[in-house]
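Each field is set out underneath.
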Amino acid sequence: MTSPKLNFKISPRYDIDGYFLLKKSWNNKESFQKKFLSSFSGSYNLSDEKITTKKEFKLRRISLLQKTKEIKSAWKKIDNHFSALSRQLFNNISKAKRSCIVYPSIWPSFLRDLKKDRISFPYDRGTNHALFVISHEILHILFYDYLYFKFKNLRKIISSEQVWAFSEVLNVIIQNTKEWHELTGLKAQPYPQHKNLYQQMNTYWKKHSTIDEMIIHFLTNPQSQ
C-alpha cells in the first residue's frame, strides 16, 4: 500500500471534532468525563467542550507550535523507512493513495477519523511517543484499505468489532517486530480485552508471518476464534 502523505496542522476545530467522535464511541460516559477532565490543570468542566478546547489551545499555543514542528521534522526522518516497511508488509499493493491531516491533541486519547482522513497525536509526551501513535494510526489506515481492496468478501464485516480487534492486535505484533520497533524504540501493548486474541495471533504470526495468512485464518475461518 502507498503510505498517505501527512499534512501537519494545528487546529482546535479538529480536536473538538475528535473529542466528540471519541465521546460518541466511549461506553462508560462517567469514566470518559473523569479521564478527560484530568487533562487540565485548571478547574474546567466539560459542559462546553468547544470553549474549553479553544481556551487550552490558546494557553498552549507556543508549546503546540514548537512541539508540532519537532514532531513533523522527526517524522520526515523516518518517513521513507516507514513507507518501505509498509510496502513490504502489504505486498506492494498500491490502491489507496491519500493524504492525511495530522494534528496535535490536548486530549488523553488519540484517534483516526477515516471519513475525514485525520489522525491526532500527543504533542507533549515526547517525540518518539508521537511518532509511535502516528505510525500506529497509519498502519490502521493501510490495513483497512488493504482489506477493502484485497478481500472483497470481507467488506461486509469491515466495520465490525471483530475486524477492529484483529487490526489492533495485528498492529501490536507488527510494531514489536525488530524492524518496526527501530522506528520509535517503543514497545506496543495489547488492550486488556485483547490479551487472549493477542496470544493466539502472536503464536500464529511466528509461523505464518504474512498479512494474507493472518487475515484468512482469523477473519475468514470461524473456527480460529
In short: The CA atoms of residues 26 and 214 lie 28 Å apart. The two ends are 27 Å apart (CA to CA).
